[in-house]
Design a protein that fits this description.
This protein has 16 helices and no strands. It is mainly α.
């Protein structure tokens, strides 16, 4: 069955409006999150920050958004909260307001920490609700959800280039329209989730559904998770090199303006959206392990060539690298959820959190690297990260389990 047929099938689900709303909420959330990295050149120029301080901002944001994710996921696994998504968006909104007016590094850190807390709430909760609403089509459902995030991450830098860069950082306040839209889109999700919880409670079952058996023994489960952590490390170190320093790279190497550099970043991030949409259904069809292996290792040819080519080939190779690398995450997340099927929120929070945390630490380290050597040196060093995809060959193959909400045959 091809991707278009799968898309038609999922559009006929009774929960399709919920999945679409989750995609939209993820899009708007990550659009707001991407504002942070998109305004880095403006912050550096206005406040005289160095690359190490830019890396520190990313570190604080990523740590706040990562450390709390598994904690929030675990808490809401045990005690679901219907209105958790709007509450997280309120935190993000407050952070955007602080970011628009912050005139010192400590206040910037407060702003990004507040935005990070909103992200830490949305990702595990929305990912868990996506699994519950998938009706057994988890790969495609997760791709629909995650492509919203990638689309938002790609639109954020583009909107910053169009409505913020030509004016001043205060124009970031225009993004409050996006946060208001996100809260509105979350209303049908909350209504459906309230009905889902009420139905399970009325049936006398656990609110998160029936217990499912784990596919592997405890030892094999931890072995598989350790391999997934290596893959997350390789993916997000390379992603951090692009999301935090790609604009500086093309400005320094090719003499582009800030607005033009944001457009280059937009090309990369839109490629990650396309790759994410492809990764989930391919994992459903060919298995998560195959997609993970091909996706991460397949990025290596593009990453190795990127530091040695001209501007146009740099843009093309960044698109190819973004497409290949991003197709891995839906498969990694679903593989992890299938390892621990009774802890969807905690697993989602753990892997989203690790992704953000590794990205934050990598950004800080790479910032010091850029100050000591050069921005161009970052890409010569990080080009080898995708080669760690070789360890995916050690993952055990899982049979595709039936979701708690899967339709009976």
């Amino acid at each position: 069955m091809n991707i278009l047929q799968k898309a038609r099938n999922i559009s006929q689900l009774p929960t399709f409006h919920v999945l679409l709303a989750l995609c939209g909420a993820h899009c708007m959330n990550d659009m707001l999150q991407s504002v942070i990295t998109a305004v880095y050149p403006m912050l550096k120029a206005e406040l005289g920050l160095n690359f190490a301080e830019i890396g520190l901002i990313t570190l604080v944001y990523q740590i706040c958004s990562s450390v709390f994710q598994p904690v929030i996921g675990y808490a809401f696994d045990r005690r679901p909260l219907v209105w958790s998504l709007p509450l997280g968006m309120c935190s993000t909104t407050l952070g955007i307001v602080i970011l628009a007016f912050a005139e010192s590094l400590p206040l910037l850190l407060v702003a990004v920490a507040t935005i990070g807390l909103g992200s830490a709430t949305l990702h595990p909760e929305a990912s868990r609700i996506t699994s519950l609403a998938s009706e057994g089509r988890r790969g495609m459902a997760q791709s629909v959800f995650q492509v919203g995030g990638n689309l938002g991450s790609s639109l954020g830098p583009l909107l910053v280039a169009l409505i913020v860069a030509p004016y001043s950082r205060h124009a970031v306040l225009w993004f409050l329209i996006v946060s208001a839209g996100a809260i509105t889109v979350m209303q049908p999700i909350c209504r459906w989730y309230r009905g889902y919880l009420a139905q399970h409670r009325a049936n006398g079952s656990r609110s998160r559904g029936p217990l499912l058996p784990r596919p592997l023994s405890r030892a094999k489960t931890w072995w598989a998770i350790s391999i997934l952590l290596v893959l997350i490390f390789s993916k997000y170190v390379y992603m951090a090199s692009i999301t935090s320093y790609y604009t500086f790279y093309v400005i320094q190497k090719f003499g582009l303006s800030i607005s033009a550099s944001q457009l280059c970043l937009f090309v990369f991030v839109i490629a990650t959206a396309i790759g994410t949409l492809v990764g989930g259904p391919f994992g459903d069809r060919y298995g998560r392990k195959v997609v993970i292996w091909v996706s991460i290792l397949g990025t290596a040819p593009f990453s190795l060539l990127l530091p040695h080519v001209n501007l146009w080939l740099t843009i093309v190779l960044s698109f190819c690298a973004g497409f290949m690398l991003s197709s891995a995450f839906p498969a990694i997340l679903l593989y992890a959820q299938e390892l621990l099927p009774n802890h969807l929120g905690m697993v989602s929070g753990l892997f989203f959190g690790l992704a953000f945390g590794i990205g934050g630490i990598a950004s800080a380290v790479l910032g010091h690297f850029a100050d000591t050597y050069s921005v161009e040196g970052i890409y010569a060093f990080c080009a080898y990260m995708p080669l760690l995809g070789l360890v995916a060959a050690l993952l055990p193959r899982l049979t595709q389990p039936q979701s708690p909400n899967a339709p009976s045959s």
